[in-house]
Write a structure and sequence with these properties.
By secondary structure, this protein is an alpha+beta fold. The protein is built from eight helices and six strands, in the order αββααααααβββαβ.
């Protein structure tokens, strides 16, 4: 799996601060992210250090990076964090189908299917683009749903990575993002 993020891509990510943005591979590994993204995902469980993964920027050799696909399909907190869970699940499996090398896809599918169960495996046979629209999210520190437009920029085919930018879809989300960043962690880029 491609986990090295090119220095120029990291420079682009730094320029996006305080926007919520991340670099991920097609398997869903969170390879680098902005402080804005960490503030948005705080409390959801995605970036919690746990067995088998480390948050972006964790100590070298500190384990696997956080993985959005694994989180959505295996962590019960994902359904609380994403009210439109089915939409996100469809998008992540379609991204798997589109992207990684056959060997990476087969390895990840074989590893994830037993723990993710039928919600994952029944989606694997679909090859139709999922419905798109704003992604709703429940943040534990915000009193309302956050709504995000996501813009995905494909990086070099050799990287097998993408830059995903979360853009507030409404004024309440924009205001909540500003508050989360203001009260959140230092504004430093994190890299796995």
């Amino acid at each position: 799996r491609s986990r090295q993020v090119r220095p120029r891509v990291l420079d682009v990510l730094r320029q996006l601060e305080p926007t919520a943005a991340l670099v991920t591979n097609r398997l869903g590994d969170v390879l680098a992210c902005t402080a804005g993204f960490r503030a948005v995902m705080a409390g959801t469980g995605l970036l919690d250090a746990g067995p088998g993964h480390a948050e972006p920027g964790g100590e070298p050799g500190g384990g696997e990076p956080a993985n959005l696909t694994r989180f959505v399909f295996t962590d019960p907190r994902a359904r609380d964090a994403f009210p439109d869970w089915d939409q996100l699940a469809d998008e992540l499996v379609f991204s798997l189908w589109l992207g990684p090398s056959v060997a990476s896809y087969e390895w990840f599918r074989a590893e994830l299917a037993p723990v993710a169960g039928p919600e994952f495996t029944r989606r694997l046979g679909r090859h139709l683009p999922p419905a798109t629209g704003p992604l709703r999210m429940r943040h534990p520190a915000v009193g309302h749903d956050l709504r995000w437009h996501r813009e995905t920029l494909e990086l070099s085919a050799l990287d097998e990575q993408q830059l995903v930018i979360y853009l507030p879809a409404d004024q309440p989300t924009s205001q909540a993002l500003a508050r989360l960043i203001e009260t959140g962690q230092p504004r430093t880029l994190r890299v796995s």
